[in-house]
Write a structure and sequence with these properties.
about 375 residues; 8-stranded mixed beta sheet; 10 helices; binds ligand L5K734KM; N-acetyldiaminopimelate deacetylase activity
Length: about 375
């Protein structure tokens, strides 16, 4: 078995959520300590790690970022190396991202390259966001890269396919959290209560009008409520309802429209259902915008390789706090085909591990070009 496939399986067993990646960090540090140390410097930051690799005759420093957190999902993949942390899973491929980064790092440490490289093992991509915080550190300032790249697994593409594009690749995002507070009571006396299940149901329906009626049809937006908590049993009227969701737009200005429409609709719900509401727009992620020259150079390089097919894809409504790195440092992100029947954030996600050596070889060749 390819050693980095083995590493992926080990990491797959220990998914941890944002800023709780203690075992993951320990695993990565242990692996890093097994590498020749003459040309590398390792610095821990929170539950993440920076690794600086000195080049032989550097003219620049190339950054490579891998996110390291898992998701609160109960795995149902049936894999023999399934999560050993019940209720948590690497369901967004960050186990792949880490093992590919370790493969690349091993390659550039053992067969040295001309330029310096900075590897960033970043916590908390799924939330609350680690990129913005990593960017502010003194370590980052000391080892600031001239360019940066990262990848994300893509279940919908075959192994050997990569997809990306110049300019906008991923959306602007904002989490949405709304709490409604009314008055609970006996199910047989609704007139003496203020029922937050009914208010919540109206609110969710009205939120769906934002994209259809307030966003220019030639623009795009998403308002998704992914979680609703309200009520206890069938014969008690719910005093509170709590909705959590996420909003996505292709440009930052449209996000401002979405937020102001949410505020207006929630105000209307307060009046109509005689309740009080609070809104949280949490953990915004800035769009992933690929540097046109760098991504074109990478796409041309990949297209010249015999083992990879390059697809010029459309932008996606996924979010990635890698966007914060790209706001400050020229670079790009690309999708790596892993051919899984089940998609990202699915309990049965099962990416094809053949993609791991494909990615390591591709990037290793690119940073040596
Ligand atoms: C690639 C991917 O699936 N990313 C996540 C990360 C977004 C987290 C954010 N805090 C949110 O849920 O709004 C995604 O859901 O797109």
């Amino acid at each position: 078995m390819n050693p980095f496939v083995g590493i992926r399986r080990e990491l797959h067993k220990i998914p941890e959520t944002g800023f709780q990646e203690f075992k993951t960090q320990a695993y990565l540090l242990n692996y890093l300590s097994s590498l020749p140390q003459e040309h590398i410097e390792i610095k821990k930051w929170e539950t993440g790690i920076f690794v600086f690799v000195k080049g032989t005759a550097p003219v620049k420093t190339v950054g490579y970022r891998a996110d390291i957190d898992g998701l609160p999902i109960m795995e149902q993949s049936g894999l023999e190396f399934s999560s050993e942390h019940p209720g948590f899973m690497h369901a967004c491929g960050h186990d792949f991202h880490m093992s590919i980064a370790l493969g690349l790092l091993t390659d550039v440490v053992t067969s040295r390259i001309e330029n310096n490289m900075l590897f960033l093992f970043q916590p908390a991509e799924e939330g609350p966001g680690g990129a913005k915080e990593m960017l502010k550190t003194d370590i980052m300032k000391e080892w600031w890269p001239d360019e940066i790249m990262g990848l994300h697994i893509a279940p919908e593409y075959k192994v050997g396919e990569i997809a990306t594009k110049p300019g906008l690749l991923f959306a602007n995002t904002s989490e949405l959290h709304i709490e409604l507070r009314g008055k609970g009571g006996h199910a047989a006396y609704p007139h003496k209560t203020r029922d937050m299940i009914v208010a919540g149901a109206h609110l969710i329906t009205q939120l769906q009008s934002i994209v259809s009626r307030s966003v220019d049809p030639l623009d795009s937006g998403v308002v998704t409520v992914g979680k609703l908590e309200a009520g206890t049993v069938g014969n008690i009227i719910a005093e509170t309802a709590v909705l959590s969701g996420t909003m996505r737009t292709l440009n930052p200005e449209t996000m401002i429209i979405l937020k102001s429409r949410v505020e207006a609709i929630v105000k209307g719900i307060e009046t109509a259902f005689e309740c009080e509401a609070s809104i949280g727009f949490n953990q915004p992620y800035y769009q992933v915008y690929n540097d046109e020259a760098l991504v074109s150079e990478f796409m041309d390089y990949a297209a010249s390789s015999t083992s990879v097919r390059v697809i010029k894809c459309k932008e996606a409504m996924t979010g990635e706090d890698f966007g914060y790195f790209l706001k400050e440092i020229p670079g790009f992100m690309f999708w790596l085909g892993v051919d899984s029947e089940h998609g990202l954030h699915h309990a049965r996600l099962n990416p094809d591990e053949e993609a791991i050596p494909v990615a390591i070889d591709l990037i290793s060749g690119y940073v040596r070009k």
